[in-house]
Specification:
globular; four-stranded mixed β-sheet; 14 helices; binds N-carbamoyl-L-aspartate; alpha/beta; binds zinc ion; about 30% helix
Length: about 425
């Protein structure tokens, strides 16, 4: 017996909403049409709801192993499910870092047992993320690593980065980079701009990111490696990626919801819930990111969900760790502030959160089509409520968006036909 998702709005090829039924059988989408027969199937009433392919977030920190006080694979994937995400890629800056194949296998096995989302682990570029010797890419790939990155830190030595790209090119692995020149970033806590000056905080200039983006594009041209820029934040970086793409360089880039929606002028006062790396930059940087996303320079959106404990984030802005959570607010934030404001269409937003990240990493997810895995997200576009960090599934409560009134909340999430989250006020599926 299958399950019919009855009467929801499905976006067609041209992005127009159509009333469609979705039949799920054996964890796959078995049929999609205007009026499918019940034929003894279970039925979910999706009338009035948007039915999307399960959202894909290729940049999250699940913190296991080693930082279970911040998050676990279980709580992080529950946060993903609540946010409408069915596939997440987790970063290797754990303790120990994911620089050996047995660690990649351990994360995959634990996620398989406890996860409420599909988890694709990134592995390290360098051993211990120390920036010196390369990890064993072939063994990491064979253990199931999605790609390699030293996220949390930039690779400081250009020769090490070039060696990584040569090796990755041989193996068909993507190199994903956290671009940050540590000599330029120094001990900075926020963007090197008006807010930093007003509160006497050390600043991180946009150039700290952009010089590594430029360097890595040159190395990509030399090595032919597939290169991806994580959490793009500076207008100069956008310009470099745009130019590289025009030259046919195999580069992709992502941007976070917070860099699209906030700039340093929005920070109300020194408060570590507004501290993340890269930092919120200037209004012009933010505008360049939106422009880059709209013109295809930036390929997709990823949250960089980076949970920390309340105690860590209660420290002052200079001392607290970088990072904010993102999984449980991403869709409503972007729907309310990009789609409802007319900056982009619903179809564009959905693509940036589904098929675009999947395509960039060669993954078969993010499409609502017969034969595809039944990863689905039902969203109520009219539901409006305030962001309440106390109600998060994540252990992290560190968000600058607390109290924001948003529309477009996910109400049911399904991974391969199994419900991973449902709004208890609306559904009671088993
Ligand atoms: N983005 C952040 O501010 N923090 C991330 C590291 C990272 O993504 O670089 C973290 O691990 O906490
Ligand atoms: Zn990073
Ligand atoms: Zn990150």
């Amino acid at each position: 017996m299958g399950l019919v998702i009855r009467g929801g709005w499905v976006l067609d090829e041209r992005g127009h909403p159509r009333r469609r039924d979705v039949l799920i059988d054996g964890g796959r989408i078995a049929a999609l049409g205007p009026r499918l027969p019940d034929a003894g199937h279970d039925v979910v009433d999706a009338s009035g709801l948007l039915v999307l392919p399960g959202l894909v977030d290729l940049h999250v920190h699940l913190r296991e192993p080693g930082f279970e006080a911040k998050e676990t694979i279980a709580t992080g994937t529950q946060a993903a499910a609540r946010g409408g995400f069915t596939t997440v890629a987790c970063m290797p800056n754990t303790r120990p870092p994911l620089d050996r194949p047995e660690l990649v296998r351990w994360v995959r096995a634990k996620a398989e047992r406890e996860g409420a989302a599909r988890v694709l682990p990134f592995a390290c570029i360098t051993r211990e993320q120390a920036g010196r010797e390369l990890a064993d890419f072939r063994a990491l790939r064979d253990a199931g690593a999605l790609a390699v990155t030293d996220d949390g830190r930039g690779v400081q030595n250009a020769a090490v980065m070039r060696a990584a790209m040569r090796e990755a090119a041989q193996l068909g692995l993507v190199v994903a980079a956290h671009c940050e020149d540590e000599a330029l970033a120094g001990a900075g806590a926020v963007h090197d701009g008006a807010f930093a000056r007003r509160f006497g905080l050390p600043g991180i200039p946009g150039s700290a990111e952009a010089v590594q983006v430029a360097r890595d594009i040159a190395l990509t041209m030399e090595t032919g490696c597939r290169y991806h820029v994580l959490h793009l934040s500076a207008k100069e970086s956008v310009a470099f990626v745009r130019q590289a793409k025009a030259l046919g360089v195999p580069v992709t880039a992502e941007v976070t919801p917070h860099h699209l929606l906030l700039c340093d002028a929005d920070i109300p006062a020194p408060d570590a819930n507004w501290k993340m790396n890269p930092p919120l930059r200037s209004r012009e940087d933010r505008e360049a990111l939106i422009e880059g996303l709209l013109d295809g320079t930036i390929d997709f959106i990823a949250t960089d969900h980076a949970p920390h404990t309340a105690e860590e984030k209660a420290r002052d802005m200079a001392a607290a760790p970088f990072g904010i959570v993102g999984l449980e607010t991403a869709f409503p934030l972007l729907y309310t502030h990009l789609v409802e404001t007319g900056i982009c269409t619903l179809q564009q937003l959905v693509d940036w959160l589904t098929v675009k990240p999947a395509q960039a990493f060669g993954l078969p997810y993010g499409r609502l089509a017969v034969g595809a895995a039944a990863d689905l997200t039902l969203v109520d576009l009219e539901a409006e409520r305030a962001v309440d960090p106390a109600a998060f599934a994540s252990k992290g409560r560190n968000t600058p968006f607390a109290g924001w009134r948003l529309k477009g909340w996910p109400v049911l999430t399904m991974l391969e036909g199994r419900v991973t989250w449902q709004d208890p006020a609306r559904f009671a599926l088993t």
